[in-house]
Amino acid sequence: MVDESTKKTLSSIPLLQTKAGPRDKELWVNRLKEEYQALIKYVQNNKAADNDWFRLESDKTGTKWFGKCWYVHNLLKYEFDLEFDIPVTYPTTAPELALPGLDGKTAKMYRGGKICLTDHFKPLWARNVPRFGIAHAMALGLGPWLAVEIPELIERGVITYQEKSEEAK
Amino acid sequence: MSTVAELQKKVKELEAQLAAVQGNAGPVRQKIDVMSSEVVDSNPYSRLMALKRMGIVNNYEKIREMSVAVVGVGGVGSVTAEMLTRCGIGKLILFDYDKVELANMNRLFFQPHQAGLSKVDAAAATLQNINPDVAIDAYNYNITTVDNFQKFCDTIRTGSLTGGPVDIVLSCVDNFEARMAINTACNELNQKWFESGVSENAVSGHIQFIVPGETACFACAPPLVVASKIDEKTLKREGVCAASLPTTMGIVAGFLVQNTLKYLLEFGTVSHYLGYSALTDFFPTMGLKPNPQCDDRFCRARQTEYKARPVVELATEVTEDLTPVHADNEWGISLVDENIPEEEDTSNLKLVDGVQVAYSVPVDSSTPESSTGGAVAASELSLEELMQQMKSM
Ligand SMILES: [Zn+2]
């Protein structure tokens, strides 16, 4: 099953309550507030544990999300753009997290740079509808994915370290 | 000065033209107004119309009035669309948002010179060339996003040759999210559809006929899987997401179109669920009743409507299929095993041996996974303030 550290991370993220998707108008606004609260708490937890690894923001409708995630390997920080849409069937189905910059560079991705999730993700998500939100998808999906794939991509020379350029904030 | 939107439109037109040019290298046949059963080498429909002479299908030419939506034009969907095109279907509506890639060439239908074109444009060009009698509409977008989902629903609702709902929707997508989106749309629209799928290890597949309210919808139970007799613990997933074989995809497409033809032209028996295990050549079939506690409220509403309708002969047929194909249970699989806790309510599912749910979902969903983080409390802050707080972290 899911490893202990992921379990621990997961359990420290607040659970959501409102079962609403982007077509649910007002209830969706409640859900979005919960999403942001859980995300804020998760980032605070990460900072406290000296493991700050992503930033996310959404458009006004809360259906388009974008941001950055990073991974430290041999003391070098590798940064990636992150994006996803909230599907109409959310939160019954999880968002499909994508790293478009790595599209085509690894077999552990679907089209458009959507990351390939482990067999544990879907059952765990399904059992936790509607309590799991975007923060949980990050912790359970993207976190472990980066930990496995990025070192491998670096070793294969597919991604190389880049000094921060001026345009990066 | 052209706007971005104008330029995008122009690019789209040119891409469609390019796809058409690349597909139309040779001579093109003229359109045929009426299907003839005359057996001459110039009649593309003679062998199909022979089905009528042989008494298999009563009214084959009715296929010309039929409209079918194919969602997902990949390994299964493209072959499905080609079969329907060759059968002389009246109208095809194709949905996909992917491009043809060289990595797709282990599958049927697409050709290397089409790499880079949108799958729907490339497919439409090839299909139109094979049979100019078929009306083909192509939509290049992802149906799971909010805006596109509405367009998708509207197209299903008004896309037939006569401006009404299509006769059947065929799901040939490769992911859970898109299947759920189709399920949501079809429950809301009361639209009959077929779900199809090939497992990520490429050695099993299935089709499922979904009549909202009458048979189980895709949300009525966790996804069903055909036992592949491979120990999941030995299945190596390192380094790859999914495998695919043209054989399995072709077989599933064949099952899908065969049952679609049976449904549209009213011959034979339409399978409610038909599975396929490639390693053992095992084909389980069964009926599937809807779950009264289904998560989809439109599914529950359709069930109520269905129960209120007077019982017709057709409705009783469903239970006939429940006899296990392999009564001796050679699979050694019972529903109560380690993967499926006893609290799981699968009683209504009555799965045939060799088919199981991919995972279980507790009936009582009020007990969360252990969490020390608690639940989010109602926030004093507005959404805008929370967005700002997140942004300034
Ligand atoms: Zn249902």
From TrEMBL, chain A:
<feature type="active site" description="Glycyl thioester intermediate">
    <location>
        <position position="116"/>
    </location>
</feature>
<protein>
    <recommendedName>
        <fullName>Ubiquitin-fold modifier-conjugating enzyme 1</fullName>
    </recommendedName>
</protein>
<keyword id="KW-0833">Ubl conjugation pathway</keyword>
<comment type="function">
    <text>E2-like enzyme which forms an intermediate with UFM1 via a thioester linkage.</text>
</comment>
<dbReference type="GO" id="GO:1990592">
    <property type="term" value="P:protein K69-linked ufmylation"/>
</dbReference>
<dbReference type="InterPro" id="IPR016135">
    <property type="entry name" value="UBQ-conjugating_enzyme/RWD"/>
</dbReference>
<dbReference type="GO" id="GO:0005737">
    <property type="term" value="C:cytoplasm"/>
</dbReference>
<dbReference type="GO" id="GO:0061657">
    <property type="term" value="F:UFM1 conjugating enzyme activity"/>
</dbReference>
<dbReference type="InterPro" id="IPR014806">
    <property type="entry name" value="Ufc1"/>
</dbReference>
<comment type="similarity">
    <text>Belongs to the ubiquitin-conjugating enzyme family. UFC1 subfamily.</text>
</comment>
<dbReference type="Pfam" id="PF08694">
    <property type="entry name" value="UFC1"/>
</dbReference>
TrEMBL record, chain B:
<dbReference type="GO" id="GO:0071566">
    <property type="term" value="F:UFM1 activating enzyme activity"/>
</dbReference>
<dbReference type="InterPro" id="IPR000594">
    <property type="entry name" value="ThiF_NAD_FAD-bd"/>
</dbReference>
<keyword id="KW-0547">Nucleotide-binding</keyword>
<dbReference type="InterPro" id="IPR035985">
    <property type="entry name" value="Ubiquitin-activating_enz"/>
</dbReference>
<keyword id="KW-0862">Zinc</keyword>
<dbReference type="InterPro" id="IPR045886">
    <property type="entry name" value="ThiF/MoeB/HesA"/>
</dbReference>
<keyword id="KW-0833">Ubl conjugation pathway</keyword>
<protein>
    <recommendedName>
        <fullName>Ubiquitin-like modifier-activating enzyme 5</fullName>
    </recommendedName>
</protein>
<dbReference type="GO" id="GO:0046872">
    <property type="term" value="F:metal ion binding"/>
</dbReference>
<keyword id="KW-0067">ATP-binding</keyword>
<dbReference type="Pfam" id="PF00899">
    <property type="entry name" value="ThiF"/>
</dbReference>
<keyword id="KW-0479">Metal-binding</keyword>
<dbReference type="GO" id="GO:0005829">
    <property type="term" value="C:cytosol"/>
</dbReference>
<comment type="similarity">
    <text>Belongs to the ubiquitin-activating E1 family. UBA5 subfamily.</text>
</comment>
<dbReference type="GO" id="GO:0071569">
    <property type="term" value="P:protein ufmylation"/>
</dbReference>
<feature type="domain" description="THIF-type NAD/FAD binding fold">
    <location>
        <begin position="45"/>
        <end position="295"/>
    </location>
</feature>
<dbReference type="GO" id="GO:0005524">
    <property type="term" value="F:ATP binding"/>
</dbReference>
<dbReference type="InterPro" id="IPR029752">
    <property type="entry name" value="D-isomer_DH_CS1"/>
</dbReference>
<comment type="function">
    <text>E1-like enzyme which activates UFM1.</text>
</comment>
